[in-house]
Each structure stands twice: as structure tokens, then as C-alpha cells.
Amino acid sequence: VNVLISLFIKLSNAFKMRPFTHSDYSRLLVRLHGEENPNQLEYVNPLTKLLSNFLPSKEVASSVAPVNWSISKYARKPLPKMILELESALKEKEWFVTGNVDPRFFDDNFSFEDPDVKVTGLKEYCRGVQNIFNQKLSRAEIIKISVDKLVPDTINVIWRLSGAVNIAFGLKIKPFIVYTDFTINPTTGLILSQRDRFSIPGYDILISSLFPWLADKLPFLSLPAPNIDICRKEFNEK
After folding, report:
1. From its phi and psi, is residue 14 left (phi > 0), alpha (psi between -120 and 50) or beta?
2. Buried b / exposed e across 122-131, counting CB within 10 Å, b at 16+?
3. Is 222 in contact with 204 (CB distance < 8 Å)?
4. Over residues 168-187, mean pLDDT
5. C-alpha angle 146-163-85 in degrees, rounded to nearest 5
6. What pLDDT digit, counting tens, does each position of 48-102 carry?
7. FRET label pair with 72: which of 7, 12, 60, 175, CA 20 to 30 Å apart?
């Protein structure tokens, strides 16, 4: 096992890999649909491309309710009021892992973004997360949601990710914290874009998934995020 970890770290350094992020999981979903389109999704991380070979060849059946894409959009409202409705919907639907979004909150030009990739279109984003995450095990538990005090028209969401992904034999995810920034279109008052950041580095996520028995034995790996009640208490006291 130590040899495998050492090899992975050396390969990571050789390729100058960036962290393995939430959108990497979404990019892996390209193979589930046979819709590989370099204009929407692309493999940036060599490891991502390698793992894509272990995805199921067919779309994973969803256990969540279908999204009502024809529903009317919400009327523009002050961000504090929008937050109350958004928090309620996120806690109910947990669409960061289920893909069961509430389209009423989203602008027609929605995009998902991290430092290396952009995914354009709400349907594409939903299809990705709905299929890559194990719907029976995965959770996106909301810890805190607030208006960004420094960046205009921005809502910050802090949440706890746990569960498993539909890669190979099914890789479990060590619970960790995700920071999501929603940019609001000042004209429509709807979510225009989403950016995700992780509380732990990519090598930690990967090693903990492949070798879960090492999670509490290697000094450079973080401990799992505490349960949701403790997380909420800690973040709300800050």
C-alpha cells in the first residue's frame, strides 16, 4: 500500500496535478451518456481521464424525483429573503449530490466552474451530479448559507459532503466541507454561476477513497469532518 501511495504522489508531482474536485466527478460523467463534447467538459487532470475508464458504461438510474424544467422562475427579491427560500430548498433536495435542483432559482445562462473547467447549462450539471453520486449513500448537508460581505451579488454556502461515487466498485467519500459561491445575476436576481472549493486537498480525497483504512494512520491525511450538528455549531459560532 505504501508503494502505491508513493507512486501516486510521484505521478501527481510529475504531472503537476491540481486537486481532484467536485467538477472532476462531473467531468467523469461524460462517459455515462456517450456525449463527450470538448466544448462543455474536458479531462484536465490525467488521473481523471484514467478513472473515467472505470465508470459504468450506461447511465445510472436515478432514485430522485424528476426535475420540473417548465416551472416558472422566481421573481427578483432581496438576497436575505432569497437565502431563506434557497436554504430550505437545499436542505430538502440536497441537489449538490442528487441533481434534483429547483430550476426556479437558476438563470438560463447558468454555469458551473472551478479553476480548470466550466460546465455550461443547468441540465448538464444536474445530469452529472445525479449520476456520479450514489443516491442511496450521498449527502449534501447544509451547514451555513449567507450573503457574501465582500463580493456583491454573491451567496456563500458551506456544506458537508459524504457518501460514495459510482466509480469502479463504488468509492466512498470521506466526509469533508465544501464551500460554494453562487453568483447572482443582478438583472434577473437568479443564480448565474456556481463555484466550489474543498476544505481538503485532492490527494487526501483520493487516497481516503481508495484506501479508507489509512485515513487515520497517515499524518498528512485529515480526519473526516465531524457530524452535521457539530459542523453547524462550529461554523455558526465563527
Report:
1. alpha
2. bebbbbbbbb
3. yes
4. 92
5. 30
6. 444 545 545 455 545 556 899 999 999 999 999 999 999 999 999 999 999 999 9
7. 60
Q: Quick one: angle between helices 202-210 and 2-15, nearest 10? A: 150
Burial class (CB in 10 A: 0-12, 13-18, 19+), 98: buried
What is the pLDDT averaged over residues 104-108? Answer: 97
Residues 186 and 153: beta-carbon distance below 8 Å = yes
What is the per-residue pLDDT for 35? 45
Amino acid at 36: E
**Per-residue pLDDT at 229 exceeds 50:** yes
Q: Which set of grid coordinates corresponds to residue 52?
A: 473515467
Answer yes or no: is pLDDT of 185 > 90: yes
What proportions of the chain, in percent to the nearest 5, are helix, strand and coil?
A: 35, 25, 40
State in Å, rounded, how far the first CA of the chain is from the last one: 39
**CA atoms within 13 Å, Cβ hemisphere of 65:** 8
CB-based contact 169:64 (threshold 8 Å): no
Residue 148 DSSP class: -
